[in-house]
UniProtKB/TrEMBL annotation:
Pfam families named among the record's database cross-references: HIGH_NTase1 (PF05636)
Function: Catalyzes the formation of N(4)-acetylcytidine (ac(4)C) at the wobble position of elongator tRNA(Met), using acetate and ATP as substrates. First activates an acetate ion to form acetyladenylate (Ac-AMP) and then transfers the acetyl group to tRNA to form ac(4)C34.
Protein name in UniProt: tRNA(Met) cytidine acetate ligase
Organism: Sporosarcina siberiensis
Main localization, broad class: cytoplasm
EC category name: ligase
Reaction(s) this enzyme catalyzes, per UniProt: cytidine(34) in elongator tRNA(Met) + acetate + ATP = N(4)-acetylcytidine(34) in elongator tRNA(Met) + AMP + diphosphate
Keywords: ATP-binding, Cytoplasm, Ligase, Nucleotide-binding, RNA-binding, tRNA processing, tRNA-binding
Homology family: Belongs to the TmcAL family.
Lineage: Bacteria, Bacillati, Bacillota, Bacilli, Bacillales
Amino acid sequence: MKAIGIVVEYNPFHNGHVYHIEQARKSTSADVVIAVMSGNFLQRGEPAFVDKWARTTMALQGGADLVLELPYVYATAHAPVFAKGAIELLDAIGCDAFCFGSEDGDIKPFEQSISVLQNAGDKYEQIVKEAVQSGLSYPKALNEAYLYAVQLSGQSLPVADLTKPNNILGFHYMQAAREINSTMAAATIPRIIAGYHDDADDEQTIASATGIRKSFFDFDTLDSVRNFFPQGTFNTLTAWRDDKGSFGNWDSFYPLLRFTILREGPKRLAEIADIAEGIENLMFRAAKNNNTFEGFMSEVKSKRYTWTRIQRMLTHIYTGFTYEHRNEIGSASYLRLLGMTEKGQLYLNKNKKKLKLPLISKAAAFSDPSLQMDIHSADMYALGIAHNTNPPIVGGDFKRTPIILP
């Protein structure tokens, strides 16, 4: 059975994601689609709209055959580490290819970009380091170094536009695949109708997840965004709302985050992953001064620190993820199965002996620092979702078994 891998967050799953799955399957003639999906905290440093189990259900209903969890240490990291973890998992489960959505929509510019940076060698990394030290944000530093490498190469062939968010991730997926000598082929499909940061347009049926979340929180009703979802997603989100009473975002998590910052104090905050250059002192003052997340962020944000970078720090503060924890975790060491269809189950049965990493269907049966962090972060997410509504179900992630749909 031929398998195509995709890297996703599904925050939440929408019609654009259905298109991605369909086109990934079609363009590579794949029998199964395997999704590596972030857990309960995401790459932009924010709590997921709904938890990984609800998002797994939506993914399986929407066309995915297998859903694996991208561990917390990768899911909440900047693009190169995020991509490395995801590609290692897709390679380990035996995917023949991986497919990503991009603004360019053509794989050739990405291949050319990889070649350009390979030829630039250590100079590229040096420019990135110097640009960050001069005060540029990491994404801008990467782009500055990339433009230098392109100019240095003198190539006339098209290269990928690495100012675009999906292109950036796609480039890092391909770079990670090359670094681990993966035999997976790379494919891309064009992002259609809505850009990554675009607001939702009521006259369309496809919008970005960012636009959908913004529209939902502006109007506080699922009916305002119903047009962008397949029926399965709408049903799952409705059931979540009826059960939990709230959806994940920093506004609702902020009281617990604020408590954590004020309790820990600057000295202990400095031990948290990604905290550097004294920003812990600014965060402590901002938490004292502000009752809202928006007010807190307005006080902390600067040209040096992007909104996303700060949110990743806050995610680690909230979950207690320290530099010491990060140093304990190396390369991907397991495949945690969140859900599968009958076709996905057939793929696993046929390829079980070929998997490069152990497959976990019960968390209790496997001991690993990364998995323990996944379980802990799921408990912290449950507390944040439920602190103003129903009693939280803490410990549930440790006991869950994979979702199986026909």
